[in-house]
Design a protein that fits this description.
Length: 427
Amino acid sequence: MPALVLLGAQWGDEGKGKATDLLGGSVDYVVRYQGGNNAGHTVVVGDQKYALHLLPSGILSPGCTPVIGNGVVVDPSVLLSELSGLNERGVDTSKLLISGNAHIITPYNVTVDKVSERFLGKRKIGTTGRGIGPTYADKINRVGIRVQDLYDESILTQKVEAALDAKNQILTKLYNRRAIAAEQVVEELLGYADKLAPYVADTVLVLNEALEQDKVVLFEGGQGTLLDIDHGTYPFVTSSNPTAGGACTGAGVGPTKISRVIGILKAYTTRVGAGPFPTELFDEDGEALRRIGGERGVTTGRDRRCGWFDAVIARYATRVNGLTDFFLTKLDVLTGWEQIPVCVAYEIDGRRVEELPYSQSDFHHAKPVYEMLPGWSEDISKAKSFSDLPKNAQAYVKALEEMSGAPISAIGVGPGRDETIEINSFL
Ligand code: GDP
Ligand code: IMO
Ligand code: MG
């Protein structure tokens, strides 16, 4: 019953795509359980680079069945273009399964996302503008459209009309926008029905049967722990649960089935969009991390905000996810610094605080308390085992492990599949 969850331990973009792809060759199913095409996962295979948004990163491993679970929000036009883009590059996508219970991002959800951000002005979240929040809001308000609705025109029409009743009032009267015609939306959505039909399945049944047959299932999180709607830096978060519990609700698998929870942890920290970020750098070190780490968003092309490693956040991720392992990524990016600051605690209004404060105002005032660790200058991108790393790099990893509360079982030393040091096997 090997069921693994792989998720972001920080604010997203930790290298989840690469980590999932690395394991993809040895697992039977890779399942996205939340989020949608707000995710941007870069996977490098040989000299080929793939940017995936909605499809699970397991799609690039021929033996693996990729699954879009019930907890995901699906933009059908994005999904179809992602599929055809991969097909053109010779990737077989025919095994894909999509839950009939997954919710659809409709064109009006995208519109509402964009106009409401504009309306917020300076207080905006900095969303990806992909309609994620409004689609989850419709789901919780029980006016959402599900994949299965595409196969019953009458129900689809009723649901779109019901959803648009209130939305058109808001669009026209509050946001000063034109109303959206239900017939047009229905027509567009019906146009996707046949194209998606071969993939639609009862994924809950498929996955539970697979686990009963001892198949290996990997649940791939989008975003990260600090972007979680419940456990993240609310309101500067996404609208789903990337944390480990989300894998259960978002895929229909009970918590007793999960055997391992792997947190993907960057050797420093990045964040896209608005919200607090205690170790953020505004100097040349931040610029250097951005340049060397290639820290530019895969989805929106925005520069990522960069800062030093934050052990308080890593400890928090261990706790709220019940992490069994860390996969430390991008250690190679830190090569060349004489000394590397690591945030070990915060100072909040003159007090030293070791754990993430639950109060939003406290977190906004948190100043990092740094410990300096000695750096290294040797190229580490060819390292194959822990002992190949320079002594100071080994000490950096060990210090992070001690502060973060779970063993570091793999280390990324470059973007490629094979640029990874495996310490403990995940399977
Ligand atoms: P995700 O959203 O968590 O999948 O991460 P992204 O793909 O958005 O961003 C991670 C970036 O780092 C991608 O460009 C990866 O190719 C790259 N990457 C992943 N692991 C490593 C690593 O160990 N070293 C380096 N240099 N790059 C890495
Ligand atoms: P991956 O899977 C980094 C951020 C957005 C914004 C907030 C809300 O590549 O790690 P949303 O569009 O989800 O309502 O935006 O969340 N965000 C991400 N940041 N990586 C991601 O995904 C993200 N997905 C959303 O920038 O601050
Ligand atoms: Mg990303």
